[in-house]
Task: structure prediction
Amino acid sequence: MIQYVRLSVTALMLSLLVSACEKKDPPAPETGVSTVKVEVANKVGTANLSLNNQWYLNEHSDSFTVSKLMYYLSNVQLVGAAGTYTEVESYHLVSQADAASLVLDLKDVPVGDYTKITFMIGVDSLRNVSGAQTGALDPVNGMFWSWNTGYIMLKLEGNSPKSPLTDGGLVFHAGGYKGQYAVQRTVSITLPAAITVKKGVVNHIHLDADVLKMFKSPTLFDFATLHTIHSEGKDAKNFADNYSGMFTVSYSGL
Amino acid sequence: MKKAWIIGVLVLAGTLFTIGGCKKDTIDPGTWQPVSFAVPAGWPQPAYAFVNNPLTSEGFILGRKLFYDVRLSRDNTISCGTCHQQFASFAHLDHDVSHGIYGLFGTRNSPGLANMAWHTSFFWDGGVNHLESQPINPIQNHVEMDMTMPEVITRVGADADYKGRFKKVFGDETVNSQRIFRAMAQFMGAMVSADSKYDKVIRNEPGFLFSPAEQRGLTLFRQKCATCHKEPLFSDFSFRNNGLVPKASVNDSGRAHITREVSDLYKFKVPSLRNILLSRPYMHDGRFTTLDAVLEHYRTGVVATATTDPLLSSGITLTTEEKNDIIIFLGTLTDSTFIKNKLFAEPAK
Result:
């Protein structure tokens, strides 16, 4: 009897502790979840983007190099028969110079079939007005405008002989989170094949970004006249309309 | 005996629940807390409500230490407190613009820092939208403190005293930008000035009455100034062109620098007038050294352009006596409790 009381009291105590934390902790693996890896590949046409030393041609036939490519992917969702999975605290800073940043681990995705991936290029307006952030959104990452609060959603820097700047520089910093000049863009792509999330099995989604599309359409970039964007406005908005179409999914499955 | 044992376990469980539950990030609630934040009677709710950043004495004191620390500047000469002096209600007395590292000059007047929790934007152009996003600006500005956040984090993180304080406030010694900005927001957000003679008269505190000149001044103020300098914060926090001719050397476009709208050219944030007698010089570029000069501008000096506020396009009609009465009234906005409050002062070294 004593043993029984002790056991039940201990169980009660444990359940109190467990339930106290339930709201904050992600669901345990037993509930049937797994990881989906999104592998980002920044490309120029069909070739993998190579920083600094590789010359490329844009649609306007201007040659250029890329020294830096960074952008936010946020608010990632998977949609399908299994329902909608929404990643918690979904803010990723992708940087071509940092291989680890090119892999996004979507954790605790409930089992089932998914046919579509949805995400935002950039950071939602709410986090642009919510004060000091950390992690991917920490201003130390160099993707934050302090004088006009807000995130640089996408940053591409490089060089072109067509640029009239003394160093031939290309500086494209797209920012602005509100009104007509907002540059965050939501992208939704149907997967080439549905993925079936199963416990203990990791699925992969290959997300390709084509740099050439940033300068192609609907606004054709001539680096002689359009080589610098470093505030919100029309140029940044046009740039965003271009890069909103740069992603494709080249593979989905195990 | 059995019962006593069970009660003991339940008490133990309760204790574990309290201590070992989900609140490991916060400090012991039993800690003595002299620092507090309260909305003064009759005031609106603040824009900054310490959400995700609960005000604690330790957090406030850490923010204060950062505020007064010259190591936040490249050459270890400038702290926030250099250009925000308590005796001037945290403006920079007698400086039209302030000098940062290496004696470099800025282009705008250092504003006072009272009642920051109610401000809906920061800086004369309102470019910053959140109290926690404010400090990064002067820290990184090349003519102010000229630091990068990684450098600040390295300096702060190398200091044993800071590490202990970060642990107390945030649960571990990690120094990052979010913690720095949140601690500073605790300090700045708690700086409330609501104890001037004006406040005491409005609150009907015994022994406090306006003099006849002050009363006349208040009546005139409410007729001629209070639309923009709205009570009780003495600003509506809007952006307006008050008819100053831009200085050719700077040609500061003001709010338009942020919004890129022609309609915002030469507009600046309406400043609060609390402690205004203490915080000369005046205007966004500090061009006027006296309140008399300010009111004279509104009386005779407004130059109307396309974006000049319609309320000011033909100036403000005032007699000399009326001007003097308004200035006398503005003197009742001086809060000596605020400027002498040791909590806000630089701690003795």
In short: Chain A has one domain: 30-253. The first strand of chain A starts at residue 33 and ends at 44. Confidence is low (pLDDT under 50) at residues 9-22 of chain A.
